[in-house]
Write a structure and sequence with these properties.
Length: 316
């Protein structure tokens, strides 16, 4: 855990603020790579993940951008309402589950709304390292698009394409952008679920392989839990078995019995709780594993996923 001070807070767009965080002890912060995020411990005991959007070579600060979302679980409301300049927070070291592929021939970056945060750091890195790339940023309007001035003033401004719903002439033509994929090209997308699905579906329709597609979700879509039943999990190390009722997650039940699994997002987005499955068939409800990884059925996210079989044997 690292104690940081909020050294500046800026309005970047309508309902979007950026927060500059520096080490409370004045030391350099741990290095991070483009696409990384940190856990931020907020007032009220909340823990939320936010992507770092500053240049990945900076060690004197971290910068995060936060959308005030009325439908959120309270994290963005706490930051916008309670965290001002001078506040002290505890954060984790950076983790990267959305990293750039080294030595890619070309990178195509897509951001929707607040999804610009990890994409911005990627663009900074690629521009400095000489990587070939283009960035497509979609938002409902210019006033709701964060960091536009920074993008337009950047050395890579010519590689940035802005798409606003209020300007029909600027609409994103994903099929055109993604036509004729070549080996060594990679796509990165972050933003609302519907936007991401459109980009990924367009890429697959143009012949992009899943190995070329990289995505990061901010939140999981609501799940229909009306048909959920109970199942059991057994720990391979001890043989202990626990029943998981319909209204509890595996993490919650195990924690109540003193079995701790590291968790962070609790929505199957971040992969922190990923656990090996030795026997049984999971019912995957995460957005972290690829379809191929889910089909292997040898790991699952116990914060949200359940079981299709009566018992799951876990490598715990």
């Amino acid at each position: 855990m690292i104690e940081v001070v909020v050294t500046s807070r800026n309005d970047e767009a309508l309902d979007i603020c950026s927060y500059e965080l520096t080490c409370a002890q004045g030391q350099p912060l741990p290095a991070f790579s483009a696409g990384a995020h940190i856990d931020v411990h907020l007032p009220g005991g909340l823990v939320r993940q936010y992507s770092l959007c500053n240049h990945p070579e900076e060690r004197h600060r971290y910068v995060i951008g936060v959308l005030k979302d009325s439908a959120s679980r309270g994290g963005s409301q706490a930051l916008h309402g309670q965290v001002q300049r001078g506040a002290r927070l505890m954060i984790s070291e950076p983790r990267n589950l959305f990293g750039l592929v080294p030595d890619a021939r070309r990178s195509v970056l897509f951001a929707g709304g607040i999804g610009i945060t990890p994409i911005l750091s990627m663009a900074e890195h690629l521009a400095q390292s000489g990587g070939e790339f283009e960035l497509h940023y979609c938002a409902r309007s210019r006033e709701r698009a964060a960091f536009v001035q920074r993008l337009e003033a950047s050395p890579f401004a010519a590689q940035v394409h802005l798409h606003f719903d209020e300007e029909p002439s600027s609409a994103l033509d994903a099929a055109r952008v993604l036509a004729n994929p070549q080996p060594g090209q990679h796509l990165y997308v972050c933003g609302p679920g519907g936007f991401m699905q459109h980009v990924l579906d367009s890429a697959r329709a143009q012949g992009w392989s899943d190995a070329q597609l990289h995505r990061e979700y901010f939140a999981a879509a609501p799940q229909d839990t009306a048909g959920d039943g109970s199942f059991a999990v057994r720990l391979a190390s001890s043989g202990q078995a626990f029943q998981i009722p319909a209204d509890k997650t595996v993490v919650q039940v195990l924690e109540s019995h003193g079995v701790e699994i590291p968790v962070s997002c609790e929505q199957g987005v971040c992969g922190t709780c990923l656990t090996r499955v030795l026997e049984g068939v999971p019912e995957h409800r995460d957005l972290f594993l690829t379809e191929a990884e889910q089909a292997a059925n040898d790991q699952f996210t116990p914060c949200c996923s359940r079981a299709r079989s009566a018992v799951l044997v876990l490598d715990l």
